[in-house]
Structures are given as structure tokens and as C-alpha cells.
Write a structure and sequence with these properties.
The protein is an alpha/beta fold. The protein has a single domain (about 1-290), classed as 3-Layer(aba) Sandwich (Rossmann fold). It is built from eleven helices and nine strands. It has helices at about 10-15, 15-25, 25-45, 60-65, 80-95, 135-145, 165-170, 195-205, 230-240, 245-250, 255-270; strands at about 1-5, 5-10, 50-55, 75-80, 100-105, 120-125, 145-155, 210-225, 275-290. Strands 5-4-3-6-7-9-8 form a seven-stranded mixed β-sheet, sandwiched between helices. Helix 5 links the parallel strand 4 and strand 5 (about 100-105). Helix 9 crosses helix 11 (about 255-270). The mean pLDDT is about 95. Bound molecules: S-adenosylmethionine (SAM). S-adenosylmethionine binds next to helix 1, helix 4 and strand 4. S-adenosylmethionine binds near residues 57 and 84.
Length: about 290
């Protein structure tokens, strides 16, 4: 289960990347908000239906799902990243006062025993693309669902369908060594970029009624504040270079390259800012299936 050369996904999400996601939780959740709404609307959560959130990260979806449920239901939110779970637990204590109780568990969704036929719903916002053995992971998730229970998740389409990533990436690429393309079935954000791959893995795990729908949303990467802080373009450039494939390009680069990358992206975003906001399109698959 390797990520970025020699480290495992557990090490990856418990190391510098996990800390980065934890640090940026508020910005990530604000940027992904339109996608979160699309996911939870599609999940059609029953008010008394318990929910398993897979790869819950800093807990945004679990908290939003809990608010849609009654107190008789419950949410289990699983992740293998201790720093992200720490953020999730802290904010749930403050934000999740209404709805169903949430239990955050440090668990590998591929193998953890969530119990059999416990949940009416399993959901995930970008938490299911990092499995070493996707068939085993989805079979394990399926086992935790009651018969007729639903799985609903979001994953990224091809990188070309995601200008919020390709625009900054194309500005940064000339500054850094050409990255080695990884094998298409390796864990990573674009693991399920092809709809047929998703259908095949879910069918293999025993799911039925599989639907894979393209969802496009403009993501507002940043909005200018009261004029005292960074401009929207500067804040959006910072966000775009802090996370995901662009941050990976810059990770081992000297400060001079990082500064130049930020300047290039910020200059470009300045030309894109409309009414104090920088928005670029995101392309996802919204996937539903039934146990
Ligand atoms: C791209 S982040 C998404 C986090 C969160 N769902 C969100 O939208 O903010 C992917 C998450 O999946 C988690 N993850 C990766 N592999 C996992 C596994 N095998 N079991 C559970 N969680 C996993 C990571 O730790 C990380 O929190």
C-alpha cells in the first residue's frame, strides 16, 4: 500500500500530508461545500438511518450527515489519519450539537470490522480512492450495510476534467522536474477517474443498482475579505498550491521555486477573479450503489 514511493497510505495520511489537510480543514470544507451538498442530497439519508463515513478526514461530511439524522440514528466516521481524526473530534464537540451522535474511529476501511448489517448508508467524500485492495475494501463496506442499504460517494474524474487542479498545475510544471506517471490502478486521487473502473470494482464487491453520474461544480477557491488580508487571488493561489497534486510537485523544491510558483498562480488568478472571488470548475463522479 505505497504512496509517493516508499511510504504506506497510513504513513502518508499520518505524516506531512495529514497535517497539511488538518491545518487547511476550514478552507477545504468551504471550497468543497457545493460537492458536500450534492453528495448528501444524493445519499437521501433516512432520518432514522445510521451512517458510515469512509475516509472521513476532518469530519465535515460526518457532521453534516449527523445534522440530517434524528437522535435515534448514529454516525460512525472512520479514517486512518490520527491528525485528521483529532481535528474531527475537536470540531464535532463544538459543531455537532444537533442530530445523531458521531463516533470517530481510527480504522482502515479495507479490513476494520464495522459489524455486519449495521448501517443504512455508507458515504464518502473523496475517501475511497486510496485503497491498496479496492475489491476487499468495498466488500468490507458492503458487509457493514443492511440489505438494501446504500453506498454513495464522490471521487474525481480525470485530471483534465478538473481545471481547479490543471490551471495551477500547468503554471507550476515548467518550474519543476517532470513527475513520473504512476500506474493507473495505484491508490491516489484519480484512481477511479474512469467510470468503468468504478462499476467493475463495485460489481466485484457484490453491489447492485450501480449509477455513476458526472457532477461539475465551480469551486470558489477563495473570496477576498475586508481588504486587510491577502487578495482573493493570493488566497486562492495559496490554497491551490497547498493541497493535492500541485503541492506534491512543490514538496521537495527550494523556497525560491515555491515562491515563484505562488507568484505565477497568484498572477494568473488575479486575471480570473470576479466580484472578489476566484472560481474554477471541478469534475467528479457521484456514485450510488445498493447492497
Ligand atoms: C482526500 S482525503 C478526504 C478526507 C475527507 N473525506 C474530506 O473530504 O475532507 C482522503 C482521506 O481518506 C483517508 N483514507 C485513506 N485510506 C484509507 C483507508 N484505507 N481507510 C480509511 N481511511 C482512509 C485518509 O486518511 C484521508 O483522510
Amino acid at each position: 500500500m505505497m504512496a509517493d514511493g516508499a511510504i504506506t497510505q497510513r504513513e502518508y495520511w499520518n505524516g506531512e500530508v495529514g497535517a497539511r489537510w488538518a491545518r487547511n480543514q476550514r478552507r477545504i470544507d468551504a471550497v468543497f461545500a457545493p460537492l458536500t451538498t450534492a453528495l448528501l442530497d444524493a445519499a437521501r439519508l433516512r432520518v432514522d438511518g445510521s451512517v458510515l463515513d469512509i475516509g472521513c478526514g476532518a469530519g465535515d461530511c460526518a457532521i453534516a450527515a449527523a445534522r440530517r439524522l434524528g437522535a435515534g440514528a448514529h454516525v460512525v466516521a472512520a479514517d486512518l489519519s490520527a491528525p485528521l481524526l483529532a481535528v474531527a473530534r475537536a470540531r464535532a464537540g463544538i459543531e455537532a450539537s444537533a442530530g445523531a451522535p458521531i463516533a470517530f474511529v481510527e480504522a482502515d476501511a479495507q479490513s476494520h470490522d464495522f459489524g455486519a448489517a449495521v448501517f443504512e448508508h455508507a458515504i464518502s467524500r473523496f475517501g475511497i480512492m486510496f485503497f491498496d485492495d479496492s475489491a476487499a475494501a468495498f466488500a468490507n463496506i458492503r458487509k457493514a450495510l443492511v440489505p438494501g442499504g446504500s453506498l454513495t460517494f464522490l471521487c474525481w474524474r480525470r485530471i483534465e476534467d478538473n481545471p481547479w487542479i490543471t490551471v495551477p498545475r500547468d503554471l507550476v510544471l515548467p518550474l519543476v522536474p517532470e513527475p513520473e506517471p504512476g500506474p493507473p490502478d495505484a491508490p491516489g486521487p484519480f484512481r477511479f477517474a474512469e467510470a468503468e473502473t468504478i462499476r467493475a470494482v463495485l460489481a466485484e464487491a457484490g453491489f447492485r443498482d450501480i449509477t455513476v453520474e458526472a457532477v461539475d461544480r465551480p469551486l470558489s477557491l477563495a473570496r477576498s475579505g475586508d481588504g486587510a488580508g491577502p487578495t482573493a487571488a493570493e488566497a486562492a493561489a495559496d490554497f491551490a498550491t497547498e493541497l493535492g497534486p500541485v503541492s506534491r510537485l512543490l514538496r521537495d523544491q527550494p523556497a525560491s521555486i515555491r515562491v515563484e510558483a505562488l507568484r505565477r498562480v497568484s498572477d494568473d488568478f488575479t486575471t480570473r477573479a470576479v466580484s472578489g472571488a476566484v472560481a474554477l470548475n471541478a469534475g467528479c463522479w457521484l456514485v450510488s450503489a445498493t447492497r
